[in-house]
Amino acid sequence: MLSTVLPQGMAFPYDFGFLPRTRGDDGDPLDVLLLMDEPAFPGCIIAARLIGVIEAKQKEKGEAPVENHRIVAVPVKCRTYERCRSLKHVDKERLREIERFFISYNPTRRKRFKVQNVAGPRKAEKIARAGMKKWRGA
Fold first, then answer.
1. pTM for the full model?
2. Which CATH number is correct for 15-131, 3.30.450.20, 3.30.565.10, 3.30.300.160, 3.90.80.10?
């Protein structure tokens, strides 16, 4: 289901989706930014490798902040990111651009997004596993 439309002139960096059968603290499936060679089409399921996470808190006006991390992944079959196993392998400036996108995109939805930390694949996997447990109600 379409959750938002970006303002004119704004575009998601790479492909943006979610991890099926997970739930984050905001009640939605866990968000995933997928670094790819070319864009995919909506509804496409892509086998991916988690390479890290942008840990963040998001706040809506009048509500308490909640964790709303952005897991970063690469397709299992991808020429550009074939050897990428961690966010350490992603250009630092590219990573800053991605962070700035989320910080500037959220006010369009009347939300505030604050980056807390950037972590590697182990932390991303831990967050994904916790999201699966939440989805199952465990």
1. 0.88
2. 3.90.80.10
